[in-house]
């Protein structure tokens, strides 16, 4: 039986496509493509995940556990806790057309692993709504 699972390069290519759909700042996309650098965003402002070793470690754990590729992260403090939203390309190409849905001019439904750092039991895979602006993204729902 043939293994139909994507290579890391195929996941990266899909991630780049999704980042372009989200209108993420081109230098961030280029650094992801050329150097495998992932950004996290707070209020649309991008930072390198390697600047936050705990978050980089969590990202790598998620990638190993779900055999996925994280391509962007948002960070928000909410009334339900501190949320780190890891936008991912899954290991199942048949799902890839459903990883992002455009909702209006600059809002998207995106598939993510949401880590509730304040209450890990509330962490899960699912869809979130993000807004794209000035080259960055932010979770809005």
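-> sequence recovered:
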């Amino acid at each position: 039986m043939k293994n139909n699972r994507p290579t890391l390069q195929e996941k990266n290519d899909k991630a780049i496509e999704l980042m372009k759909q989200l209108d993420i700042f081109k230098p961030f996309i280029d650094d992801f493509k050329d150097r495998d650098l992932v950004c996290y965003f707070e209020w649309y402002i991008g930072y390198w995940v390697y600047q936050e070793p705990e978050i980089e470690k969590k990202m790598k754990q998620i990638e190993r556990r779900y055999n996925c590729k994280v391509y962007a992260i948002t960070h928000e403090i909410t009334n339900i806790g501190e949320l780190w939203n890891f936008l991912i390309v899954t290991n199942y190409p048949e799902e890839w057309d459903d990883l992002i849905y455009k909702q209006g001019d600059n809002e998207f439904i995106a598939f993510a692993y949401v880590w509730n750092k304040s209450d890990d039991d509330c962490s899960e895979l699912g869809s979130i709504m993000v807004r794209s602006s000035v080259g960055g993204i932010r979770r809005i729902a």
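The mean pLDDT is 94.
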